[in-house]
Amino acid sequence: MPKFLTLDDFELEGKVVLVRVDFNSPVDPETKKILDETRIRAHGESTIKELSEKGAKVVVLAHQGRPGQPDFIPLKQHAEALERIIGRPVKYVDDLYGEKARNAIKSLKNGEILVLENTRTYPEERKKRSPEEHAKSEFVRSLAELADIFVNDAFASAHRSHASVVGFTALLPSAAGRIMERELKALSRVLESPEKPCVFILGGAKADDSLKISKYVLENGIADTVLTGGLTGHLFLVATGVDLGKPNMELLEKQDVLKLTGGIKELMDSYPGRVKVPKDVAVEVEGKRKELSVSDLPTEYPIYDIGAETIEEYSRIIRDAKSIVVSGPPGVYEKPEFIKGTKMILEAVASSEAFSLAGGGHTVAAIEKLGLSDKISYISTAGGALIEFLMGEKLPGVAALENAASRTKA
Ligand code: 3PG
């Protein structure tokens, strides 16, 4: 586990605490309404509530969307949702570090909560800079001046070296929030000393990431077996010399991932039998599901799922596992005819005794759709940050907390 400070290391009563959370949520492009409040609930019910209950003056920093994108909206709705979720008054100011925001911070009383404007309204927020460089900005300096402590609870943004993620750690005593702590604890359980056998299930459309994750977890003795599905499974099949047929090969070409097949083959040769590829697949013929053995490929139809034989083999491996990581669904579960692979694999994970960890937008949505959320040991709130962590990358947000802790202790 990383060495950072937590809320337990600080006296919080009466302190102005800047808390960086990740409220970034899916937004309806037409109505601009938030479609899912999972992240707001997670931070609200843990870190924000605790800070308020302990008498801190809580100043919430968060981003939503990316400038120029339809989901780039103010945080007013997030503040309203937070108030409803935690049942405590939440103030909101449509300003990030101007006079309005600073006055609102100065007038906070113990236990009060204030949400500031979307951090990405600050034009240099997303510049990839070191904590010290970001700390020179007016945004970071003017808010740090009014605060006593910085808390980073935004594990889901920890892969971004952005101003509001790392900048304050250079100027203020800094701690990890409860969600940050919880995410890192769950992840270290599967990455540092996983109970064996440890199985990684890699699906979804991000085949490039799947290769990097497979490489890291095999080379570092973390995973015993990697099960591939989704577009990842297709690409790994191609690496073994299979021609999937025109529509499927074209899709991989469009994603510009065929160049990875050499690396995948090398990895599979170095770890024989440890990376599983589908034995059969399900294609769509006139709107209906049809299963084909891999030996019957190529096909002129699009492949949308793994087939029964693959489901059977993967489920058996999952049943024997003691640690399981799921990143990406094995099939296009959004299409009712092709939910079978995702359903059966996730059900096998849910009914296993293993410690299971799942993450990523599509994976979590599939788990929720299938009503299996309660049966997965840990569901991460993160997308990109989780992927980078699983690849063995050091996350700048976490490194900044560790550096701040070593300075505070010194
Ligand atoms: C996420 O949703 O993965 C985080 O909030 C980071 O968002 P970003 O990819 O726009 O930086």
Task: Offer a quick outline of the entry.
The protein has 410 residues and is of the alpha/beta class. It has helices at residues 38-53, 76-86, 99-106, 131-135, 138-144, 163-166, 178-191, 207-219, 230-239, 246-254, 261-270, 308-320, 340-351, 361-369, 384-390, 396-409, and strands at residues 16-20, 57-61, 90-92, 113-115, 149-152, 174-176, 198-202, 225-228, 275-276, 280-285, 288-293, 303-306, 323-327, 355-359, 378-379. It has a six-stranded parallel β-sheet with strand order 3-4-2-1-5-6.
How many domains? The number is 2
Bound ligands, named by name, code or SMILES: 3-phosphoglyceric acid
Helicity range: 25-40%
Structural class: alpha/beta
Overall geometry comes to elongated
How many β-strands, per DSSP?
15
CATH architecture of the largest domain: 3-Layer(aba) Sandwich
Report the CATH superfamily of the largest domain.
Phosphoglycerate kinase, N-terminal domain
Instruction: Describe the largest sheet.
Output: 6 strands, parallel
Radius of gyration equals 23 Å
Mean pLDDT: 97
> Which CATH top level class of the largest domain fits?
Alpha Beta
**Spatial strand arrangement across the major sheet:** 3-4-2-1-5-6
Give the amount of beta strand, in percent.
Answer: 15-25%
- How many helices? The count is 16
CATH topology of the largest domain: Rossmann fold
Q: Which regions are unreliable across 5 or more consecutive residues at pLDDT < 50?
A: none
Q: Give the N-to-C terminal Cα separation.
A: 20 Å
